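Class prep. Protein, please:
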Amino acid sequence: MAYFSIGMALHSEGSYEDVFEQLTDGLSWSSGWSESWVPPSKSAIFQARSRLGFEPVRDLFARVARPLAEAGTPGSWLAGRRLVAIDGTCLDLADTPANADFFGRPASSRGEQSAFPQARMVALAECGTHAILDAETGPCSTSEIELSRELVGRLRPGMLVLADRGFYGFRLWQHAAATGADLLWRVKTNLRPRYLETLPDGSWLATIIPTSGKNRTSTTPLTVRVIDYTIDDGRGNPEEYRLLSTILDPGEASAEDLAAVYAERWEIENTFDELKTHQRGPRSVLRSKSPDLVQQEIWGHLCCHYAIRTLMAGAAAHAGHDPDRISFVAALRIARRSVVQGSFSPS
């Protein structure tokens, strides 16, 4: 049933029976038609999904999701560090009382509730390959920062983690930096680190402490590097950027390098688009009607996306291409056809 959960993500618009037939036709083909399966009823599939729960699919993703970028993969490295980005998104769910009670509904701009319950997901993705490496899910009432606390604890040395200005907080930064991963996070320009010295490339060293709390002044300061720059796109209002980084030595990565590589953070937005618009389908809601099965479906989607991105990374490496230049939509279509031929194996 874990494989079925991945199949539901691959064929998100198909019924239970359609998904089962697609998967078993491929297995029958791969066995030379020596084996066949009688499709169970929709009720039987639902009961089997309920018995499975979401934990095995979540654990499967945690077991298989590993970085895919090789040493020469474009857009994947800076100063020997693997570029990854952290960000959050929301997923529309089936409108059932159980989903609404567990996940909640966001408020609309008019103060009314959204038409659908929503789950929130915060993910860590490899910038060069769009492979999602880790994730946390929860109700939409749970903030991205709260979900990120668990996620950043699993960062690893050798990573350079990019994040937008909505993520910065002293405690989260402190927690993430303690893992040994390097950080490059945008912060609001009104954040005032305490100046220490200006570096040869124009960036400067500073210390940061919590911006609030009764013990803020007694907290041990953390040293960071500050990179200030402006992007003038010709529209009359140049946008100011302030980045904080744990890479303190400009000899390892210059201010210009860090400013340029921060743009790779947008790759996780493209990753979410692949997952939500193309794999799940535009304007679609997840089909599951109970919280456990919603979470199972989300982890199935993450397993499916990772499998497709693994195939794309392998194809790009074989052809000597940038993985960004390969169409996810085309790869998705190939994967759907491959199931029927037994090439999208559960192994």
In short: The chain has a mean pLDDT of 91.
